[in-house]
Each structure stands twice: as C-alpha cells, then as structure tokens.
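[job 0417] fold request received: Cardiolipin synthase N-terminal domain-containing protein
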Amino acid sequence: MKPTPIVILLLACIDCVAADYHSATSTIGGLLGMIILILDVIAAIEIFRSGKTLIEKVLWILFIFFFPIIGLVVYLLLGRNRSLVI
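[job 0417] inference complete; emitting structure tokens
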C-alpha cells in the first residue's frame, strides 16, 4: 500500500507539532536568558557612566557577571545613586 501525499503531510505536521511542544521550554529559557543578558549589559553601561571609582565599577560589573540575576537585583536596589525628591 502506497501512502498518499495527504497522509505524509499529516504525519509531517504531527511530527512538527510534537517537536515544537518539546522545545517550548528551551525557547522560554532562551528568551529569559536573553532578557537577563540585555538587562545586565544595560546595568554595566550605567555603571561605566556613573561617578563611582574605578574599583567600585570593576567590582559591581564582576558581581553582575558572576551572579547575573542576583547581581542585577542587588545593584538595582543598593548600587544605584538615588536622588532625593521632596
């Protein structure tokens, strides 16, 4: 029995859907990783432009580099210069 083109097309679609289902978590993880990387680069640029001393800049950037999520959160909470608005 020779498979018809429609059967081959349906089997190919089922295979593609199954492959997309299994790779959805890696896609989400890849997107989250890209967002974290972009935020870390923005923070590093902000650190370079800040008025901190050279050693402070190097330490903050190393902290963000070695601990991307925790370093970014700690920098945003504690490392940025805050202006007091009254």
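[job 0417] notes: Residues 5-79 form one domain. The chain has four helices and no strands.
[job 0417] exit 0
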